[in-house]
Structure to design on (469 residues):
């Protein structure tokens, strides 16, 4: 079967992210014997022209759309992406009669709403490397749809669905078709080569959609196999800047350490960043990260008071955060902290306590403070929001919908957050990120391959504040 895979993601801020999920599905389809073409729309000057040309050239039997994000998850200046996805579907419909199957993380968090809105014929929820080839086989045989994991399809005018299967080990899945990704363009936009060392997340953060994407059970890629992939990419493409896109790279610590030890054993000269949290991130692990080429850590705290860590069910404590601050500082690793204000029970006193606690722990290179929690169905945040009357059970959650603690709604929370951040030059807020000045700085740093781009944000912050005054 001839399959045209299209990555719809167009987001380039703070940097463009290569479509690793779609590229893995391309490899899986090829391995299953299908003829596959891949169209990445991230840098397309004309989306319609790119789609028309690809369809005319390839004449696909079926078209797959990979949809990463529904929106920018921003309470301040929210922006939805699925409107553009609908335009893509309409363009496809005008060009050919091939059925359309959608997949990706955006589909997995809102399959019914997104499938209906886009008018797609089929949808795959969860991991597509096995499900999509199985679906194509069932389609060719005109039977067996009920056995395809994660499939949504119409039968007798009604939608039916199968639960996703998060059982397969990543070791059994093919390597991403990185040769089909234009890394030159992604790198000029500040991007990296994305690598994933495991799937699944055992943490229980109340707002998180990861269980819908990868399940809760951790499934590991053997360290040797992970570094095999990285080594081959360096050799074949000349690119040596990586980003570990695991939800939490450092957990469990033993697996992250084994990956770093394998990098060191092979003397692989690379730079990399990773998402981490304070669970088990001590000095020994931080020093190993540094030796293995780590250029910086993006530390997902979300909160920095015991009350809000408990309310968000983060799974670590203030003592863990302080230990991690000290470990990263001692290892000489730059790190950025990400905070998420507005959770259940939070008030403005908690904001001030958060600032004081972080100052007491040490000095991060950057603190990114966001506001409002994006509500997804089938999460604890959704249940809390419904219980407090913030959303009704029948409220569609395709368009961005946010939770904000009632204790923050008697004042202007955006202004209050900006005021809090102005007290420390390493802090920034959505007001900063949306400014023209910051976007110009981001563009310059991306073109210059400054990694990490937030390492010297204090000086950028001083510059922005001089401009603002």
């Amino acid at each position: 079967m001839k399959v045209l895979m299209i990555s719809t993601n167009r987001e380039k801020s703070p940097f463009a992210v290569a479509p690793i999920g779609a590229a893995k599905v391309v490899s899986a389809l090829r391995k299953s014997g299908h003829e596959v073409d891949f169209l990445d729309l991230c840098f397309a000057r004309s989306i319609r022209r790119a789609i028309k040309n690809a369809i005319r050239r390839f004449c696909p039997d079926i078209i797959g759309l990979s949809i990463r994000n529904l929106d920018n998850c921003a309470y301040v200046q929210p922006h939805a992406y699925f409107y553009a996805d609908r335009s893509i579907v309409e363009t496809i419909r005008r060009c050919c009669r091939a059925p359309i199957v959608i997949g990706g993380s955006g589909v997995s968090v809102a399959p019914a709403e997104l499938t209906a809105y886009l008018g797609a014929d089929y949808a795959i929820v969860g991991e597509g490397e096995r499900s999509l080839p199985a679906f194509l086989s069932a389609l060719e045989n005109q039977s067996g749809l009920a056995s395809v994991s994660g499939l949504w399809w119409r039968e007798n005018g009604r939608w039916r669905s199968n639960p996703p299967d998060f059982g397969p080990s990543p070791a059994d899945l093919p390597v991403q078709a990185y040769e089909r990704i234009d890394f030159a363009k992604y790198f000029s936009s500040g991007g990296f080569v994305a690598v994933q060392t495991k799937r699944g997340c055992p943490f229980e953060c109340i707002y998180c959609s990861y269980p819908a994407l990868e399940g809760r059970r951790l499934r590991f890629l053997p360290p040797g196999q992970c570094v095999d992939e990285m080594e081959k990419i360096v050799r074949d493409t000349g690119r040596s800047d990586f980003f570990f896109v695991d939800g939490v790279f450092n957990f469990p610590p033993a697996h992250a350490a084994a990956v770093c030890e394998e990098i060191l054993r092979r003397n692989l000269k690379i730079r990399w960043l990773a998402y981490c949290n304070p669970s088990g991130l001590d000095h020994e692990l931080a020093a190993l990260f540094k030796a293995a080429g780590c250029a910086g850590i993006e530390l997902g705290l979300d909160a920095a008071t015991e009350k809000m860590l408990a309310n968000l069910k983060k799974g670590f404590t203030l003592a863990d955060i302080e230990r991690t601050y000290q470990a990263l500082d001692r290892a000489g690793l730059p790190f950025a902290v990400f905070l998420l204000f507005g959770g259940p029970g939070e008030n403005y006193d908690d904001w001030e306590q958060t600032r004081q606690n972080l100052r007491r722990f040490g000095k991060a290179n950057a603190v990114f403070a966001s506001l409002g929690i994006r509500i997804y169905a089938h999460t604890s945040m959704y249940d809390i929001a419904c219980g407090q009357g913030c959303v009704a059970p029948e409220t569609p959650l395709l368009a961005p919908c946010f939770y904000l603690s009632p204790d923050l709604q008697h004042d202007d929370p955006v202004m209050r957050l900006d005021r809090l951040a102005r007290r420390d030059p390493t802090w920034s807020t959505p007001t900063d990120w949306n400014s023209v000045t910051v976007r110009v700085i981001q563009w310059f740093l991306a073109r210059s391959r400054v990694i990490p781009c937030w390492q010297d944000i204090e000086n950028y912050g001083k510059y922005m504040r001089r401009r603002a005054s």
The CA atoms of residues 345 and 373 lie 13 Å apart. The two ends are 61 Å apart (CA to CA). Residues 2-161 form a domain with the Rossmann fold fold (CATH 3.40.50.280). The chain has 19 helices and 18 strands.
